Amino acid sequence: MSVSNSQINISRRQLFTRRKDADKPNLPWVKNQLFTDVCTQCGKCSNACPEKIIKSSDGGFPRVDFHQGECTFCYQCAEVCPEPLFHPKTEPAWQVKADISDACLAKRNVDCRSCGDSCEPQAIRFKLAVGVVAQPQIDIDSCTGCGACVSVCPTNAITIKNL
């Protein structure tokens, strides 16, 4: 007996297939509660993204890959989507923020400020301390979740996570 894709409850499959990505953002402005049920994986959002950061992820669903670059919040992914998956552009793009792990060079006492240099809203600043190199600190209120800091990090110590 074969089962067609229309009979598979994709939202239940999410429990098993994308568990490792549960705290990572899908797309800006997307209605997360509808995402796996309504997205048809047509690829229009990926093709429309001028930064080419929207990639096919588990199950063929689109997901932002900040290792490719940053989100400029252009809204083109939402404009081309044929499904009612996106909130209006007037609403906040998402509730994701940068997070710096212990793999950060500065936390290992090696001077590096790549993330701070790439952060346009200056949400990542470096605090001077005696006996160690300046340490990165994220102003969560200023962080837009654009991901500009991710691709420039030489140790992949930065991730963008859902709050």
From TrEMBL:
The family assignment reads: Belongs to the NapF family.
Quick one: which residues bind [4Fe-4S] cluster 2? C71, C74, C77, C81
Keyword annotations? 4Fe-4S, Cytoplasm, Iron, Iron-sulfur, Metal-binding, Repeat
This protein is called Ferredoxin-type protein NapF
What Pfam families does the record point to?
Fer4, Fer4_7
What are the recorded GO MF terms, alphabetically?
4 iron, 4 sulfur cluster binding; metal ion binding
Provide the binding site for [4Fe-4S] cluster 1: C39, C42, C45, C49
Can the keyword Iron-sulfur be found in this entry's annotation? yes
The cofactors it requires, by name, are: [4Fe-4S] cluster
Residues in domain 4Fe-4S ferredoxin-type? 30-59, 62-91, 134-163
**Main location per UniProt?**
cytoplasm
**Self-association and partners:** Interacts with the cytoplasmic NapA precursor.
In this chain, [4Fe-4S] cluster 3 is annotated as bound at C143, C146, C149, C153
InterPro entries recorded for this chain? Answer: 4Fe4S_Fe-S-bd (IPR017896), 4Fe4S_Fe_S_CS (IPR017900), NapF (IPR004496), PSI_iron-sulfur_center (IPR050157)
- List the source organism: Vibrio algivorus
**Where in the cell?**
Cytoplasm
Q: What does this protein do?
A: Could be involved in the maturation of NapA, the catalytic subunit of the periplasmic nitrate reductase, before its export into the periplasm.
A GO cellular component entry from the record: cytoplasm
* PROSITE patterns assigned: 4FE4S_FER_1 (PS00198), 4FE4S_FER_2 (PS51379)
